[in-house]
Write a structure and sequence with these properties.
Helix content: 55-70%
Structural class: mainly alpha
Largest sheet: 3 strands, antiparallel
Mean pLDDT: 84
Number of helices: 14
Order of helices and strands: HHHHHHHHEEEHHHHHH
Distance between the termini: 63 Å
């Protein structure tokens, strides 16, 4: 952690063991583990002054629900959003579950604390025409043919295969399996995603133009010096495309993934199949796209229906 914890050696040792468990057993993504570590550290340092010294096992065992609520209230006063507060509480509960499994201590304090309700925000998808124009215009913004082909291939994977940008940039040549793609998603889980002809063609074009040797196990997409392509460069390319096409700030590489799901659903795609393609662990995560599609339908209805217009 970036700052020293107000905790004794025993608690510090348990935190190290908990973090190791998150990585090796639960296989959380590194960034999620870092966020959990930071969240728990803030909670421990909040409890310290209340305990009058370093937080100990006894401090945590005697903790009350009011202590947790006071911490959450202080974070809320700092302007922390409900979604981040919910993650913070999840981190704290995870640590205490670990302590209970290890026979260190048990407490009921967390059972009476409600998880903050995060405001649901619908993902903003591009229209079909906007998504197609985004892919097609990439060639017009880059003089180096292989770089243009590279960026087009990455964005094609986001829209044509529903990949996260991190998933697209972690692909190797060995992950290309004919008409399918082996994708490693969150938590190290792999899935097979079919490649439509246009996406496969954009990848093949890039492979034919790339000036660097691409062995089966090495990253597929390279920077201009041959290193692993940074997601920041694709984000910057998308910024250029927004300016060229007059798209809103919500038009990001991830918005192309949202568009993939929304457009599939709008064409009658099965929700379970879309869940598999996106690599969502829970169907409830995918179901948000039903709301997106309903909103688009209502917008079209309001724009087209004669009675929707004033006068």
């Amino acid at each position: 952690m970036s700052t020293a914890l107000i905790a004794d050696d025993e608690i510090n040792t348990q935190i190290v063991r908990w973090l190791r468990d998150l990585q090796s057993v639960r296989r959380l993504a590194p960034k999620t583990t870092e966020a959990y570590q930071r969240d728990l550290g803030q909670f421990i340092n909040f409890l310290g002054p209340h305990a009058g010294g370093p937080v100990t096992t006894a401090t945590l065992r005697d903790m009350r629900g009011a202590d947790v609520r006071a911490f959450m209230a202080s974070r809320r006063e700092d302007g922390i959003e409900p979604r981040s507060l919910a993650r913070t509480l999840s981190a704290i509960k995870s640590f205490f579950r670990f302590l209970e499994r290890e026979g260190v201590l048990s407490t009921e304090a967390l059972n009476i604390v409600r998880t903050p309700k995060a405001k649901k925000s619908l993902p903003k998808a591009l229209t079909v025409l906007e998504a197609k124009a985004t892919i097609a215009t990439t060639n017009e913004l880059e003089d180096r043919p292989w770089v243009a082909a590279r960026d087009m291939a990455v964005l094609s994977l986001c829209y044509g295969a529903g990949l996260r940008i991190s998933e697209a940039l972690s692909l190797s040549r060995a992950d290309l399996e004919g008409s399918a793609l082996r994708v490693t998603g969150k938590g190290g889980k792999t899935r097979l995603v079919p490649l439509i002809d246009s996406v496969r063609a954009s990848i093949d074009t890039y492979l034919g133009l790339c000036p660097f040797p691409l062995t089966p196990s090495q990253p597929l997409f390279r920077g201009v010096k041959g290193g692993v392509l940074s997601p920041r460069l694709i984000q910057l390319r998308m910024t250029q495309l927004r300016g060229a096409l007059g798209l809103p700030p919500s038009a990001t590489p991830h918005a192309l993934r949202h568009s993939f799901a929304t457009h599939l659903l709008g064409r009658g795609g099965d929700l379970r199949a879309i869940q598999e393609l996106l690599g969502h662990a829970s169907l409830s995560t995918t179901q948000i796209y039903t709301a997106v599609d309903t909103e688009r339908l209502l917008d079209a209805y309001r724009a087209a229906h004669p009675r929707s217009r004033a006068g």
